[in-house]
Amino acid sequence: MENKEVTSHSIALSVLQEGIKKLAQWLELDFPSLPLMQHQAIIRAKEVMSWQNESEFKPLNLLFDSIHLQGYKRQENVHYLPPSIIKNESPILELPALEIPDISNFKKQVKEIIGNLNEEDLNNLSLLNLCLEKIGSYVSYGDNDIAYSDFVKSIVMIAVSLKNNPSADSIGLIGGDLSGIQKFIYTISADGALKSLRARSFFLELVTTEITQQLLTELNLPLTNVIYAGGGNLYILTNNNHEENKRITNIIKARFNDWFSKSYQGKMFLALDYVTLPVDSLSNDKLSEYWQKIPKKLGKQKQQKFSNQIRDFLTPQPSYESCQVCHRDDQLKLKPLNPHDAYSSSACWVCRTMFDLGSRLFKIKAIVRAKRAKNKGFDRTERVNKIVLPGYEYYLYENINKALSLVNAETIFLINNWDLSNYKNEKIEPILLGNYGKKTELENESGFMSAGEMVKIAENSGKIGRVAYLRMDVDNLGKIFAQGLGEKLNLPRLASLSRQMTYFFKVYLNTLATEKNYNLLFIYAGGDDLFISGVWNEVIDFAFEIYQSFRKYTGYNPSVTLSAGISFAGAKYPLYQSANESGEAEEKAKGNGRDSLGLFGEVFKWEEWLGKKDIHVNQLERLDNLREYLGGDVYLSLFGVKPIVDSLQKINNSYSRNFIQNLLATAKIQEQKIKEAQKRKTGLIYKEEIDDLKYFLHLPKIAYTLTRLPNEVINHPQFEPIKTSLKSPYNSRYYRAIAIWLELLNRSS
C-alpha cells in the first residue's frame, strides 16, 4: 500500500483485522484474505509489545493478583478468570477462581461470533474494536495476566502514534482533567433534586465525551487511541509532534473554558496538557515515571484557573434574583423549575434544562452527536431532548432504530450495548454508563423515583422514612496505577486495569442492582467511584453487596479495597448537604486505615460491619491488634454489627425500646469514661486503661439489659447465641451502631 493511502484509521483497522485473524487461526476457521498492512509503524509496535506469532491463547490470570502496595500483605493466591464472552445486555460479574478453567466452551462461542463476520464487518473499525473487546477480554495471549484485547489495542495505539515517524524515540500522551465536578453536581437544593443531580452527572459525562471526540478529530486519531475517558478524566496516546499537540490542546482547552466561564459561571474548568513518552517505556515500568508527569502538569493548570479570563471575572456584573436551585444570580429571568407545578421553585435555564433532562433519561438507549449546522435532517415531530455543547448538539433517543436512521449524525453512541449487530455503521460507538435507576411508580409521572417515594417505601415497611446517600471509591487508586504493578507495569496492563475498574463501576453495578430490583438511583457511577441514593435500608444492603462483589472481583487482594460513607436525610433535606455528609463519612472511613465504612456516625472496617457467624477470632483478617489484647482462643456465635442485628430481627422485633436505649446508654458510658481517661493519658498505663474501658466496662450494664428483655425474646431458642455474643468484648464497640440500626428498622414515625 502506498504511503499516500496510509491513514491512522487504516493502520488501526489493519492491526485489529490481524488480531481477529489470529483468533480465527486458533479456532481453525477460514478467514477472508485481507490485505493486511505491513507498515513500519505496525512492525515497530509489535516489536515494542513483543508480539510473538508462536504464542498461544490461554486462560487469563487475574491482573489484580499482581498489585502490591507498600505496607500491605502480598497476594498469595493465583486466580484465573473464566474465559467468557461479554453478554449483549446486562453483562454479569465474572469472578476469578483458583482452578485453571476449561477453555473449550469459550472457543465454541468465539467461533460462532467470528464465523458470522462478513467482509464488510471486517472493514468496520468500530465494530472490530467492540468485537475484540467482547471476545478478547477474558483470554490471554503471551503474558498470562494481559487480556488479549488490551494487548492488541496497545499495539494499535502505538502503531497509530508512530504512523508519521516509525523510528521515533518518543510518542505523546495527552491528559485531561475536568475539575469543579462536585461544585456543579452537588450544590443544588430544590424539589426534584435527585433527577436534576442525575442529569448533571450525565451531562458531565457527555462533556468529557465531547472533549475526547474533538481531540481525536483535530489530532486525526481513531477512537482506539483513547486509553481512558470518563468521569472528567481522559488519556489519549498520540504522536510526538510537540508543536501541533500543544496547539490543538490549547485551542480545545480555551474553547471549553470560555464556554464554562460564560454559561456556567466558571464552576467547571478543563485542564488539558501533553507530555512525551519514550517508546520503549510503554513496555516496562519506566512508564510510571513519565505517566505521572501529566497529573503534575494538570495540577499546575488547576491552580491557575481561568488566568486568561481574569479580567472577565473582575468586571462588575449585574445581580438579579437568585436561582432557588443552584443559587446563581446572573440570570435576568427565572422560570418555574417544573412548568406543570405552580408552586415549583424559580430556576435558571441550566437548572430547568437539567430537571427536564432528568425526567427523560430513564429510557434513553442512544445518543446522537451532530454538528450544529448539520442537523436539519432530524425529525422534529418527535420530542427529543437536546444538549448543546461547543460546536455540537447531542440528541437523546429511546428508540435505537430511530437514532440509527439519522444520516447527518457524526457519531451515534449506544448506551451499554454490546450487540454487534447494532454496529454495522462505522460511525456507531458504544458508551458505558452506570445508569441504574428505579422507575417512578406515581401516576402521570415519568422518569426516576423521587426522594419522597423512597421515604414512603421505607415507612410502608415499618421502617423510619429516610433516604440514604452512599459515596464510595477505591482506596489508593493513584498509587495502584503508579506503583501497584511494580516492575510488571506496561501499557497493556495499565489499559487493562483502567478497563476492569470501568467495567465494575459502569457495567456490573447496573446488573447487580437490576438483579435485586433495588429502589435506588445511581447519581454517578464512574471509573473508580460512585454516588447513589435510595431507600435507606436498601442503600446499606447494596453497599455491602458492592463491597463483597468488589473483593471477589479483585481476588481479595489486600492492596485493593473500598471505603465508603452513608448519610441519611428526609425527602426535603438539601441535597448538597446530604452529599457533604456522606462525603465526610467517607473521609472518616479513609481515616480509619481505609477498607472501612462510615455509617450511623460510626466507622468500622467492612469486616466488622458485615461480621461472621460461628467463627473463631483467628479467622478475622483485620483484627490482629485486638486479638493480641483479648486473646485469640475465642469462638463467637456472632461477630460484628450486621449478624447481631439480623439475628435480633429474625427472633422478634418486640424487644423493648428500653433494650435499644440501654445499648445506647452503654455506648455513651464507654465513650464518656474513655474521654475522661484521655485527659489523664500517661504512657502504657493509659493505653491499658483505655482498652479495659473499651472492651470490659460494658459487661455489668449489658448483662442487666439482657435480663430485662421480654420473656418471648429471652426464651427463644435462637436467643442464646445473641446473648453470649453481646457479652463478648469482641462486640463491645458495636453497641451504638446495633442500637441505631434496630431503632431505624422498627420506627416508621
Describe this entry's structure for a reader.
Helix 1 (8-26) runs parallel beside helix 5 and helix 8 (193-219) packs across helix 13. The N and C termini lie far apart (76 Å). This protein has 749 residues and is of the alpha+beta class. The chain folds into four domains: 3-161, no CATH class; 170-308 and 319-431, 2-Layer Sandwich (Alpha-Beta Plaits), CATH 3.30.70; 432-609, Alpha-Beta Plaits (2-Layer Sandwich), CATH 3.30.70.270; 611-749, no CATH class. 45% of the residues are buried. Strand 3 (139-141) and strand 4 (143-147) form a beta hairpin. The strands form six sheets. Strands 17-18-16-19-20-21 form a six-stranded mixed β-sheet. The chain has a five-stranded mixed β-sheet with strand order 12-13-11-14-15. The mean pLDDT is 89. It has 28 helices and 23 strands.
In CATH, the architecture of the largest domain is 2-Layer Sandwich
In quaternary terms, these chains amount to single chain
As for the number of domains, it is 4
Q: Give the averaged pLDDT, no decimals.
A: 89
DSSP strand tally: 23
Helix content estimate: 40-55%
User: How far is the first residue's CA from the last residue's CA?
Assistant: 76 Å
CATH class category label of the largest domain: Alpha Beta
**Radius of gyration (Å):** 28 Å
Please name the CATH topology of the largest domain. Answer: Alpha-Beta Plaits
Report the major sheet: 6 strands, mixed
* Structural class computed from helices and strand pairing: alpha+beta
Number of helices: 28
